[in-house]
Amino acid sequence: MRLVLTEPVDKMERPYARRWWALLVLCLSLLIIVMANTALTVAAPDMTRDLGLSSADLQWVIDGYTVPYAALMLLLGAIGDKYSRRGALLLGLTVFGGGAVFGYLADSATTVIAARAVMGTGAALIMPATLSLLAATFPRAERAKAITLWTSTAGLAIAAGPVVAGALLKNHGWASTFLINVPIAAVALVASLVLVPPSRAGHHDRIDYVGGLLSVVWIGSLVYMIIEGPHFGWGVKAVTAAVVAGAGLLLFVLWELRHPRPVLDVRRFAERRFAGSNLAVALFFLAVFGAFYYLTQHLQFVLGYDALGTGLRMLPLAGAVFAGSALTGYLTPRVGMKWTVTAGMVGGTTALALLTRVDAGSSYGDFVVPLVILGLAIGLALSPSTDAIMGSFPESELGVGGAVNDTSIELGGSLGIAILGSLLATSYSGHLADATAGSRLPAGTLATAQDSVGAGYAVAQGISEKAQQLAAQAARTTDPQQAAQLKAQARQLAGGARQMADAVGSSFSDAVAHTSLVGAVVLAVGTLAVALLLPGRKRTAGAEPAEPVEEREMAGAAAN
Asked: What's this model's pTM, rounded to 2 decimal places?
């Protein structure tokens, strides 16, 4: 007899026997869609050189994945709830794998961006499906442990992406970082058919497509604005996107308040547990993605590690995520989620505060402790937050619950890269202008170096190569006077190259410290807000803490 989960397994006689194998498949699916973003951070330089990408092209190669991913999750999560959560996962893996093949074959900026958009659409199907299938498959007593393993996988993927990409780039081109997704997606697809039980909501109400489309409009416009404004200036495109996002959000809220079966009941945000958990998730990924963005650049450009070396040096973060997840699994049932989430956010703030000490003399050893603390903080805070968000939804809306959690992740991550990345670029440019003030280098050369840390080192390398050419020319000339002049020019240029390289390294280190300070302040303020929002455990004699909303609503949902 075929098992189809239309109610939570706690309401069934026996839990699904192969649920832990199913979790492995769900985690594998999650792994590749997170790695698709983090792997690109180390593949980007090769891609830029090979395709001749401009800075705008490269930005949209990265964010072409993010916009459809964030915008479509809520609607696709609701569709998966009604028709088939496993079907959404299978379709998502197929679309994601197809996009990866498209990316492997791409030979221009336009086709790479299009391939990334296809992959983002697949990810928007996969991400909420993994959480909703997890929640539908596991009994309440085991769900927190399963979600802990799910969030640990996300932490592993953040660090594993650069390692895998770095290993591939040793002997292959950037296109291999797309192709590696295909066999993994294929394995996950076949394993899903064998190990993951079909699941759908117990009711057959019509989907609120108007609310779903409004969510696509306002979330997509908001993410576009977040990307466009800080990186390319607040011109017509960014301002228009901001207006559309604001109007779309207002219409979405008004529509959802009036609809009898909204795609998302916005009244849930009035619940302190739900609102605080979403804020914690968004702020954490703002900090994590922002820090990851500039730490990988510092390791590659300033400290000189290659792609694989950079990825390997991010692994302490992944190991610490697993340790933090094990710790939260022990602490949360004893002290309550408010304390573990708040402690995790304090840890994240501490990690960013430690990064404010980075300077031109910093080595990799100065990054290990902040990375470990940040990983522990992720493990402590994210699992109970995700569990609280999923527990706020009845069985009929588990896909929507997963989409809400994942949208918070994407919005936070997009904000982190856009805000902290923009601040990093501005700070680096200002510090480099100060460091090179009074130099005899051409103004155009200085302007190029101020564009990015990679451009700065490229300028220094170009000056050094020019010095070597003059030295070689001096060695070949037979005129002593001309040879002396060429040697003098070569020495001057060589000194200028060293000065530029030193200025670029120190300026970027100062920018990392300055950006980390701002990030720490933002996360500290957010920590206070989350601590005030999250309710403490309600203690009564001989009673357990109050159950989440899911338990209160489940019976009615299953009866539909």
From this structure: 0.84
